[in-house]
Amino acid sequence: MTSRLLVDKIEGKSTANTVQMPSGFVVATHSFVSSGDTAVAVASTSYATLDTFNLTVKQNNSIMVWWVDTQQYIKSSSVSNLNWRLQVDGVSVGSEESRTSPNQAGLNHVWYGTNAGREYLYNHFVTQNLTAGSHTFTLDVARYNAGTITLKYQGGAFRYFVQEIAG
CA-to-CA distance for 27 and 44, rounded, in angstroms? Predict the structure, then answer.
């Protein structure tokens, strides 16, 4: 025989930021839109910060899973592509050189061969285990190969969906 426990409301632990969920369970969910929708031209191979978010990790040893939607962007050349990375407190979550890492910073050859077409790009990032408390997350972008990539084209701000997963 199994038992069921039904609870209408849990108070205290979650509001005090001392929530303790079992490993693998969702602790918190966030949804953001980029800090502006003005078009941004990316012509440099050096990374520049596109968006910054300050989030409080509720449970020690949690990971943060980020899904990123670029909305629409255009590029000036069929070989222009976007590099992007997520940083936590100034440290990249992935290896810049690894195509096999689940946390690859993000070299993207989307619709390769399209020139000046409108494209959409989705990516995800998984952080290392984080300590509870406030952290600064930045999404950085750079151009790969020749040309220019225009992000947030025609007001298409980036969208972010973030989940804290208990570690």
Answer: 37
Domains and CATH numbers, the chain: 26-86+99-165 (2.60.120.1340)
Tell me the C-alpha distance between 61 and 131, whole Å: 6
d(CA 103, CA 115): 28
- Is there a contact between 27 and 19 (Cβ–Cβ < 8 Å)? yes
| Each residue's pLDDT tens digit, 95-123 | 554 444 545 545 444 444 455 566 677 77
The model scores a pTM over 0.70: yes
The DSSP H or E segment spanning 54 is strand 48-57
Distance, CA of 88 to CA of 40 (rounded, Å): 22
